[in-house]
């Protein structure tokens, strides 16, 4: 196998024997085959759009199936086989529609690919991956940028998937996804072309994040500072993990008047800040556990049913497999999967029945809590206080410390960094990286908390708006603000967000815990020269550099 799309790749160079995420070579190969089939859909969909043929079903499928190939989303080889069959069917249906308008269209080799279902799909995927690598190995920098574009588009597809669930779509996103996928089969693009395409991923991803933000805020209201209990209450329980707030609401609806308390896990913690969600569903009570990589411990201890809505899913363990359910693009062999029944919403009856059959929480624990809800409206509403505090010398600097968490011990850097941030500085945070320090009591500056949780990785748009809003209020360029970005990455959403930041011209980002293995030395140098993108070093050194 060959996979280097996430941060935890073996020796930082890529996984070749078995995925560090737990993905088998066979699953990796069928994922590669699925992506190849989506590359085959791309030119057909582009032609169909040119002719005015409706492609919406194909558009939505492309984003969901790309999402399923992201790190720690789906480990089920059978499901990928189903995705592949559906992809070929949609492609051929679209070809037939195109033929009604233009009978003489010549398709590329990849758009004519037909899997042999009598042979191993994994072997076919391995052959295709090897061919892709061989065709690209003559120029390592272009290959690096091809992978950057592909991984960025996977992240873009995931944001688009969530936005579409909430009724927010823009055909420019689907159009670009096809253009980027089709470009992977072109060998006449220059290095500059690929750099521009990578930045275009960032531009379109920024649009997708804006749509997702609109979907959340128009449906559930703008987040407000909200205290969230970390200690459970007595009674039956369901734990909801992942990122999908629409599905969290569906679970809350279906558990009304059942006596079940619903807890969030991982990236769903910020859901408690949405006023229309918490007001309507009082049985949405608290948060349980921390980041995704700790779920084997968290899930084993949780005394109720568990539903994983999106990434990140760890390889499961016998201690909790019988109470675990997955939905949407998420899957694992032999784990109960709840398919959609209406409006992209599963019937959660099986999970509810499991929760009622399990003991739930039988002992009370000492109260603990954290505060969430410092999204763009909450922060920008006090922008005048921030500006005054900066001008008066009460606030020296702001740090955005956020991104993905992971299991590597060198991620302790982020905990130590936040602990060492001087008391006259504020820390904004988002995504699951915050779980290394989210419950630390950093105190306040005036009436402003020194630690503000902006939200999920899906709320990166909100964090960007805070930076742009403060720049406007200060009447200066965003790169002149007393603000430093210290980011951690793990999977492909983070790649897409980084490309959005670069598209916006944001400089001096510190990235860790390691630089992506798919970035060649020359590409990294190019990004360093143009944007001063640099790896983290030590907390003391980076703090000193940021504070001058």
Describe this protein's structure.
- With 548 residues, the protein is of the alpha/beta class.
- The protein has 3 domains: 10-219, Substrate Binding Domain Of Dnak, Chain:A, Domain 2 (Up-down Bundle), CATH 1.20.1270.20; 226-357, Rossmann fold (3-Layer(aba) Sandwich); 375-547, Rossmann fold.
- It has 18 helices and 18 strands.
- A 6-stranded parallel sheet has the order 4-3-2-5-6-7.
- α14 links the parallel β11 (397-403) and β12 (425-430).
- α2 runs antiparallel to α3 and α5 (140-165) crosses α16 (492-503).
- The radius of gyration is 23 Å and the shape is globular.
- The two termini are 45 Å apart.
The structural domain count equals 3
Summing up helix and strand content along with how strands pair, one would put the structural category as alpha/beta
CATH level-3 fold name of the largest domain: Substrate Binding Domain Of Dnak, Chain:A, Domain 2
Overall radius of gyration? 23 Å
Question: Could you write a compact summary of the structure shown?
Answer:
Pfam families: Prismane. This protein is of the alpha/beta class. The chain has helices at residues 25-50, 56-68, 77-101, 121-136, 140-165, 171-183, 191-220, 245-254, 275-280, 295-301, 349-357, 376-380, 383-391, 412-420, 460-474, 492-503, 521-531, 539-547, and strands spanning 226-229, 237-241, 261-264, 284-287, 305-308, 324-326, 336-337, 340-342, 345-346, 369-372, 397-403, 425-430, 444-445, 448-449, 451-455, 483-488, 510-512, 534-535.
């Amino acid at each position: 196998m060959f996979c280097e799309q996430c941060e935890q790749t073996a020796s930082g160079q890529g996984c070749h024997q078995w995925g560090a995420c737990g993905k088998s070579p066979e699953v990796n190969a069928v994922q590669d085959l699925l992506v190849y089939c989506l590359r085959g859909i791309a030119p057909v969909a582009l032609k169909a759009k040119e002719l005015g043929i409706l492609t919406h079903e194909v558009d939505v499928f492309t984003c969901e199936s790309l999402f399923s190939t992201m790190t720690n989303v789906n480990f089920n080889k059978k499901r990928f086989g189903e995705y592949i069959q559906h992809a070929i069917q949609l492609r051929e249906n679209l070809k037939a529609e195109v033929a009604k308008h233009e009978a003489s269209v010549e398709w590329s080799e990849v758009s004519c690919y037909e899997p042999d279902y009598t042979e191993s799909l994994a072997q076919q995927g391995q052959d295709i991956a090897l061919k892709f690598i061989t065709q690209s190995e003559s120029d390592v920098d272009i290959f690096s940028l091809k992978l950057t574009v592909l991984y960025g588009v996977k992240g873009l597809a995931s944001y688009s998937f969530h936005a579409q669930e909430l009724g927010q779509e823009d055909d420019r996103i689907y159009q670009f996804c096809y253009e980027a996928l089709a470009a992977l089969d072109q060998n006449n693009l220059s290095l500059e072309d690929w750099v521009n395409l990578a930045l275009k991923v960032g531009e379109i991803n920024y649009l997708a994040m804006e749509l997702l933000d609109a979907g959340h805020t128009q449906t559930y209201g703008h987040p407000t500072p909200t205290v969230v209990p970390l200690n459970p209450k007595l009674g039956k329980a369901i734990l909801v993990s992942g990122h999908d707030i629409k599905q969290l609401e569906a679970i809350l609806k279906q558990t009304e008047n059942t006596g079940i308390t619903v807890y969030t896990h991982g990236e769903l913690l910020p859901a408690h800040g949405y006023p229309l969600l918490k007001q309507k569903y009082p049985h949405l009570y608290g948060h349980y556990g921390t980041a995704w990589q700790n779920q084997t411990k968290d899930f084993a201890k949780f005394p109720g049913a568990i539903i994983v809505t999106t990434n990140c899913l760890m390889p499961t363990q016998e201690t909790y497999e019988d109470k675990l359910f997955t939905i949407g693009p998420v899957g694992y062999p032999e784990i109960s999967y709840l398919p959609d029944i209406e409006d992209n919403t599963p019937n959660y009856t099986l999970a509810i029945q499991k929760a009622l059959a399990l003991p739930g929480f039988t002992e009370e624990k000492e109260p603990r809590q954290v505060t969430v809800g410092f999204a763009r409206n909450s922060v920008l509403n006090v922008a005048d206080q921030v500006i005054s505090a900066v001008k008066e010398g009460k606030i020296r600097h702001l740090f955005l410390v956020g991104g993905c968490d992971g299991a590597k011990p060198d991620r302790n850097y982020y905990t130590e960094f936040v602990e060492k941030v001087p008391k006259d500085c504020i820390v904004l945070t988002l995504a699951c990286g915050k779980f290394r320090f989210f419950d630390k009591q950093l105190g306040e500056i005036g009436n402003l908390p020194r630690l503000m949780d902006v939200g999920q990785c899906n709320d990166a748009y909100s964090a960007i708006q805070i930076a742009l809003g403060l720049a406007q209020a200060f009447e200066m360029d965003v790169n002149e603000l007393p603000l430093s970005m210290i980011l951690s990455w793990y999977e492909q959403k983070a790649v897409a967000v980084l490309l959005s930041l670069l598209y916006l011209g944001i400089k001096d980002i510190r990235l860790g815990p390691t630089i992506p293995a798919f970035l060649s030395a020359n590409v990294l140098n190019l990004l360093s020269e143009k944007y001063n993108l640099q790896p983290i070093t030590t907390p003391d050194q980076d703090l000193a550099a940021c504070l001058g």
